[in-house]
User: What shape does this take?
Amino acid sequence: MKFNLPQNIKFVLDTLIANGHKAYIVGGCVRDLLCGKEPHDYDITTSALPEETQALFEKTIATGLKHGTVTVIIDGEQIEVTTFRTEGVYNDSRHPDGVNFVRDVKEDLSRRDFTVNAMCYNNNEGLIDCFGGQKDIKAKTLKAVGDAKTRFNEDALRILRLFRFAATLGFGVEKQTFDAAIECAPNLKNISAERIFVELQKVAASNNPTALCPLLETNALNNYSLKNADFSNISKLEEKQDLRVFALLNLTSYDLQNTLDSFKCSNSFKDYCFKMNYLSQNIVDDNKISIKKALNFADKDIIFDILRYYRDILNIDISRHKALLDEIIKTGEPYKISHLDISGKDITSLGFDGKAVGEKLEFLLNEVIKKPSLNKREKLLNLICN
Assistant: This one.
């Protein structure tokens, strides 16, 4: 087998090999190529020490020298090159106390998480697969490299990665690997919220998010207020990250505020989730008044998203909602105070002030939402005066 590698990747490999070093693409990119997918990025592993890699290329960044990683820059593209290594003891269920650089790629592959990620390749030697990764890809099975419990005790994030790969790849999990992951799941408490959230985002984007259910059943993510739930319909949603992540969290969280705070989500995403959650609990009716009131409450992009949520998660027919929403937007029917043909100054000129001005504007908006033809300055003034 021979893969057609990107030119910049081939250049880095060829340069290292031409200078007496071993070099291969490794990990997820090899897995993706074997699955017939285009890798999102390529990682390179080499026998060259970090300083030897730096000496061979004009532009490099010392990304993580103590861990053996140098970022090589070719035509503006950043390519991570890491020295073959073994790792020391993991005392925090996440990071090794140290690494040892080695010259044998097989030693490097033996420290990796799953067999499907423990393969490397170059065009000269072909595929190096010491742990049966290619066979497991054909069988669509995820299996730990070596002793599964040891792998998960070393780095608890691998537990969540296991279920994420099951979701994104559509693979099953080998029994011993599954059992070890469930047994070690409490160690996820040692993993940062940010890293866990990244994995959950990838699960939400997958075609099989229910692969996460066995992990949720262990209550290992209970400190994020996440419980098991039926979210089999998430994969029906449009592939829009905020929408899918909201759906996953909204269906599994029993305290959305705590969940979002625990994951240190951005204020903009929190606002999106709170508005979506409100609209999921207070269903918008399929009439113009309800839809315009919803548009006043949230941006039209959120309204489009909540309609998708109604359709794909709550199984609500949104055909009439969608037609009315499109009509409102196309015709420019007013639904916000800023759309009124009158301002606060006009109301103040009539002798109102303070809170009363806002109340009058809200009153006028409600009238105009019900009857758009009222949105003329004179008519609005008459409504207030009468």
Q: What stands out?
A: The chain has a mean pLDDT of 94. The first helix runs from residue 7 to 18. The radius of gyration is 28 Å. The first strand starts at residue 23 and ends at 26.
